[in-house]
Amino acid sequence: MTLGIYLHIPFCFQKCNYCDFYSLGCSRSVPQEYIDALRREIARWKQKESWRRPATVYFGGGTPSLLNARQLEALLDALEPLPDAEITLEANPGTADAAKLRDFRTAGANRLSVGVQSASDASLHRLGRIHTAAESRTMLQNAAAAGFENISGDVMLALPEYSVKELYDTLELLCGCGVKHISSYLLKIEPGTPFGKSPPQGLPDEDAAADFYLACVEECAARGFAQYEISNFALPGYESRHNLCYWNCQDYLGIGPAAHSCIGSRRFCYPADTAAFIAGAQPVPDGECTAEDFILLQLRLAKGLSLAELQGRWGVSFSAAQQAFLRRCEKNGLAALDGDRIRLTPRGLLVQNSILCNLV
Ligand code: SF4
Q1: Which atom of ligand 1 is nearest to the CA of 90?
Q2: How many angstroms does the Cα of residue 309 sit away from the middle of ligand 1?
Q3: I need a labelling partner for 161 at 20 to 30 A (CA). Which of 5, 93, 105, 303 fits?
Q4: How many angstroms does the Cα of residue 27 sit away from the middle of ligand 1?
C-alpha cells in the first residue's frame, strides 16, 4: 500500500479572520530549529516497519511558501520520496516571488496549491488576506514560468456580499492562468476566530450559499473541470493524488504540530504546540478508522462507494432499512445507485452530513 506524507508548516504572515487551522501568525520565515525537528521525526519514522518511500508529499500549513528552497530540499532529502512522487507545496500570494518559485521547483516541488480565494480585493481585505487579486495572478504566472505544470487554486465561496460575478471572476482568474485543479470551500464562521467573535455583515444565508456551491460545480464543469470530490475539481489526470490517499483510506503520516496520521487504520496526532514539537513531543493515539469513516470518505468522491469494497475491506453490508433509505435518496435526486456503487449527486453532496447521519 502507498504512503502519503503530510508535513505541517505552522507559520503564517498573519492570521486570516476566518482561520481556525493551527498556525502561528507574524512569521516571515520558518525557523531552522523547526526544520531540524521535522528531520528528527522523519528519521525516527524511517526506523519503523511501517515506513515506505512516500508516493506523495504534501507541505501544508500554515504557509509553506515561507520555507526557503534549502529547507524544502533538506526535508525532501530526508523523506526520499519515490521518483514519480507528487510533491505539493501550498503557497500564498505575497510570500514567494518568481526567483523563489523557481528555487522551489528546482528543489523538487512539482505541484503548487495557491491560496487565491477570490478575485475581489474588497473580499480579500475583509478576509484578512495579505494579498490582492493581482498578486494572485502574478504568483500563478510566475509559478507556470518556473516550470510548475500542475497548479491548483483555492476558492472560497459564499463570502460576505458575495455574488455569482465574484465567483465567475475568480474562476476566470484561475483558468486564465492555466490552473489544472480547483478546490472550493464555503466560508464557515468558526468560533474563536475574529469572524466568530464578530461575524461580518452581508453573509449569504444557507440557501444562497448552496446556490453558490451549485453554480461553482456547474461553471467548473463548463470549463472542463470534473468534480471528483465534494470540494475538488480537476482537468483529466490532475486529481490530487495526496488527497485521494485520505479519501480512499490509504496510509498517511502527518508530521508537525496538530498533524494527523492513519497507519493500518490506527489514527494518531501530534499535539497542537510548536514549541513542544521542537522539544520532542510525540504523537498520541486518536482512535481507529472504521467502516463508517470509509463510507463517509468514499461518499465525498464522485466515484462513490463500492458495496463490494465495503464488504471486502470492512466486512460490512447495508441492512434492508439502510438500503431503503438510499433508495429514497435516489428518488429525491440526492443519490444515484448503479449496481455495486452508490454516489451522491451535487445536491446530495450539499446535504451529505444529514444523509450520513441517517445512513450510519
Ligand atoms: S494563510 Fe491559511 S493557514 Fe494562514 S491564517 Fe490564513 S487561512 Fe490560516
Answers
A1: 2
A2: 37
A3: 93
A4: 12
Place of cell 466568530: 196
pTM above 0.90, yes or no: yes
Q: Kindly give the distance from the C-alpha atom of residue 22 to the centroid of ligand 1, in angstroms, as a whole number.
A: 9
User: pLDDT digit string (tens) for 175-230?
Assistant: 999 999 999 999 999 999 999 999 999 999 999 999 999 999 999 999 999 999 99
Give Rg (Cα) of the chain.
20
The contacts of residue 78 (CB under 8 Å, 6+ apart) are 38, 39, 42, 43
Beta bridge partners of 155: 117, 184
CATH of the domain spanning 304-360: 1.10.10
Q: Which of 11, 16, 135 maximizes ligand 1 atoms within 8 Å of its Cβ, making it the mutation to test the pocket?
A: 16
The one-letter code for the residue type at 53 is R
Mean pLDDT in the chain?
96
* CATH superfamily of the domain spanning 3-245: Aldolase class I (3.20.20.70)
Q: Among candidates 42, 25, 46, which has minimal Cα distance to 92? A: 25
